[in-house]
Amino acid sequence: xxxxxxxxxxxxIPAGPHSEDNPSSEILSTTTGLLSSQVEISxxxxxxxxxxxxxxxxxxxxxxxxxxxxxxxxxxxxxGGAMHTAIGHEANAVGASAALRADDYLTCTYRGHHHGLxxxxxxxxxxxxxxxxxxxxxxxKGGSMHFVSPAHGMMGSNGIVGAQVPHAxxxxxxxxxxxxxxxxxxxxxxxALFQGVMHETFNIASKWKLxxxxxxxxxxxxxxxxTWRTSSVGEFYLFARAYGMESVQIxxxxxEVVHAAVTQAAERARAGDGPTFIEGITYRLAGHMxxxxxxxxxxxxxEEQRSHDPVLVLRNRLLERGSSEEAIAAIxxxxxxxxxxAIAFAEASPWPDPVEAYTDVYRI
Length: 364
Ligand SMILES: Cc1ncc(C[n+]2csc(CCOP(=O)(O)OP(=O)(O)O)c2C)c(N)n1
Ligand SMILES: [Mg+2]
Prior knowledge:
Layout: E1 2-5, H1 6-12, E2 42-45, H2 50-75, H3 90-98, E3 105-109, H4 113-118, H5 123-130, E4 154-158, H6 164-178, E5 184-189, H7 196-207, E6 212-218, E7 221-222, E8 225-226, H8 237-241, E9 246-251, H9 255-270, E10 276-281, H10 299-306, H11 310-320, H12 325-348
Parallel strand pairs: 3-4, 3-5, 5-6, 6-10, 9-10
Antiparallel strand pairs: 1-2, 7-8
Helix pairs in contact: 2-3, 2-11, 2-12, 3-9, 5-12
């Protein structure tokens, strides 16, 4: 059993070379000063079974390979509308989903492919959705920004910053009223914290002890703006304390740590003890969206963060705990095959019938 202390988390994540304390830097990006110790945090991270770690690695790599393909497809003009990848964020999704029940609810942002796949959405149908094909989960009408599959508890990604958060509170309230024992988890970015609806939801969720987990994927940028330029608060998990909520800041690039934090938050939610706020420190290794020229950060900064790539973290964990290079290579080979078949399926999928434009659409 590892005890993750504030200092351990601090050491695990490259802090990034630039900060407000270093204004002479040409580069505007920075991390927050991680865990400046206003609140002591320590929680146990029990080692997961090797098969669980291997499954998480499989999932994270599958997400990575799918999104690398999607970036290429976007460059070739095969994708309509904006397309955001979660390259670098994978551990937040695979760690959290492995800690949830299959019937729990999830809502997230336009950066949500990783959550869909971690919840078990089929990769071929997921790609078909992004390409706008009939076999997509929303018949090709939702696209990248509106991943949805109620059968997987994936209750919607959303292009409006913060909008998915009160939706999750509604799902948690429904479960509470019906005494279903299901919980809701909602993922949002650091930039969303400055939307009023976030704070309205924090307040009522805490007051009504909703079975809800607020999960901030803090990648330290809101589009092209580093968070330290816009936030008066450096430690986002502290926002939740003002609403009487338990909160914790964790290494969001370590799926095992994410799993432990979400497991504890889910237990609290199911026991009727109310919501928890988790701040997962992460980093997007690709642009904000396909086509982002990334003039606001340096190649050196991205390179430094690659040393803590969540897929690499999982790979190294497997090796440290006794998996062979051959076993890991077999997972990678399986993923390559699976994603190649999924791409072929999606590309062969027909375009939606134009008549479909009027189905599943709310009209007054
Ligand atoms: C209400 C609203 N305001 C502004 C935007 C434009 N916008 C799209 S993404 C984004 C940045 C959000 O940053 P963050 O919450 O940190 O999420 P990230 O993209 O980093 O995952 C903004 C401002 C929007 N989509 N919705
Ligand atoms: Mg962000």
